Amino acid sequence: MAETSGRLIAVQLEGAGMADAIAEAWDRGDAVLPLPPGLPAEAQGPLLAEMRPAALVTPAGRAPLSGPEPVGREVAAVMLTSGSTGAPKGVELTHTALRASAGMVSARLGAGPGDRWLACVPLHHIAGLAILVRSALVGARPVIHSRFDVGRVAGERGATLVSLVPTMLARLLDAGVDLTRWRRVLVGGGALRPELLERARAAGAAVVTSYGMTETCGGCVLDGRPLESVTLTLGQGGVIAIGGPMLMRGYRARPELTARMLRDGRLQTADIGRWDGHGRLEILGRADDVIITGGEKVWPDAVAARLAEHPLVADAKVVGEPDPEWGQRVVALVVPADPGTPPTLEELRSWVVGRLERHNAPKAVVILAQTPGPASGRKQGW
Predict the structure, then answer these.
(1) Coil/strand/helix, residue 165
(2) Can you tell me the distance from the alpha carbon of 130 to that of 218, in angstroms, rounded to the nearest whole number?
(3) How many angstroms separate the CA atoms of 227 and 382, rounded?
(4) The pTM of the whole model exceeds 0.70
(5) What DSSP element (H or E) covers 11?
(6) Strand partners, 328
(7) From residue 107, how far is each of 116, 177, 353 by CA, in Å?
(8) Within 10 A of 258 (CB to CB), how many other CB atoms are there?
(9) CA-to-CA separations, 318 to 89, 144, 284, 295, 311, in angstroms, rounded
(10) What are the tens digits of pLDDT across the range 234-288?
(11) pLDDT one-digit tens code per residue, 25-77
């Protein structure tokens, strides 16, 4: 990777085609804007108008675009992210930041010559891009799958390291795939339930949990411990701020947002955390997700994670409902392990109080066939 020419090239390809196009762009000194292969045309137009790349590379070839806006010095990639909510933003990542992240993650995982990554996560996400950079660092081209397929992953024998999201991990376990073939299984990009982690480790998988985001070039906290050179502080209310050489340069064409999110060399997240008794970071939820009940704060993710550990519960989500007495009341949405024997409210309250303070216990329970929307849980990243 070299300093950029100032040109930003949008790339809308899949698998190895995407990887080759990114490598070629970096060899020319260009920056890349990886786009989802299935991005609808009605979404692509406004996105290109906002990001303003100089050209678009698709299976049909390379087409110049009008009104390009150069990228800043040393910018390697502009990665799309919407965070938890909102319209996509372009996160500018430099070569220096990507190399720093790759080096720190590789060192923590003990990755080096002889290791090879399996990339079955999308290359237009930071998880996939990070694999390309880590692979270049150890001098081995990754094994690239255009999309995740249990059968194809099960038959893959050419890799020693893999990145997965929790859903992928669960599907591989359900299919009985031998996970011991990988020296490390890096899991991020979503909530990793304790029971899924325990199940994977019981199957012999060397799982490493990851917390981070696109703005930090992916995971910057592995197994609850910040990477070397990463600084992490908890501010008022446990709000997480992150510093280190892997931080983004800023948001493309959004200087006000950049100034708000990057202050004193630290990324100001909306995540809430705490240090557990072993010095590991525990993510409780997001500041905008908190439930205030009777003046006490309840983090839905933490309560949902505890509920999901109950033997009678298959899945759980926690929400706040308006309450004339409490302001909000904690409501548990529960999918029972056995529909014929759902847990009672009393059982769930006792279970929660066994680990968390009493105000976290739900005041109502709703039994469902499946939880609506994504399950509550920790924000993770590669």
Answers:
(1) coil
(2) 7
(3) 12
(4) yes
(5) strand 8-11
(6) 322
(7) 14, 27, 39
(8) 17
(9) 28, 37, 13, 18, 17
(10) 998 899 999 999 999 999 999 999 999 999 999 999 899 999 999 999 988 888 7
(11) 999 999 999 999 988 888 899 999 999 999 999 999 999 999 999 999 899 99
Count the neighbouring beta carbons within 10 Å of the beta carbon of residue 334: 27
Question: Which tokens hold the place of 42?
Answer: 């009605």
Name residue, tokens 């220096």.
96
CA dist., res. 337 & res. 185, Å (int): 27
Tokens of 259: 């100034």
pLDDT means per 10 residues, the chain with 382 residues, are 76 97 97 92 90 97 96 95 69 98 98 95 96 95 96 96 94 96 93 88 98 97 98 94 98 96 95 93 86 87 93 94 87 95 96 90 93 48 54
DSSP string computed for 266-292 = EEEEEEEEEE-TTS-EEEEEEGGG-EE
The burial class, CB within 10 Å (0-12 / 13-18 / 19+), for 342 is: middle
Residue type at 335 in one-letter notation: V
CA angle 103, 257, 262 (to 5 degrees): 40
What are the angstrom distances between the C-alpha of 149 and each of 74, 129, 204?
Answer: 35, 19, 21
Q: What span, in angstroms and rounded, lies between the C-alpha atoms of 81 and 88?
A: 5
Could you please report the per-residue DSSP string of 97-145? HHHHHHHHHHHHHT--TT--EEE-S-TTSHHHHHHHHHHHHHT-PPEE-
Interatomic CA distance for residues 63 and 58, integer angstroms: 8
Residue with token string 């996560």 = 121
State how far the Cα of 241 lies from the Cα of 261, in Å rounded to an integer. Answer: 10
> Pairing relation of β-strands 55-58 and 291-293?
unpaired
Helix, strand or coil for residue 44? helix
Sign of torsion over alpha carbons 372, 170, 309, 197:
negative
What domains, with CATH codes, occur in the chain? 8-93 (3.40.50.980), 96-284 (3.40.50.12780), 290-367 (3.30.300.30)
Please tell me the number of Cα atoms within 13 Å of 238 on its side-chain side.
18
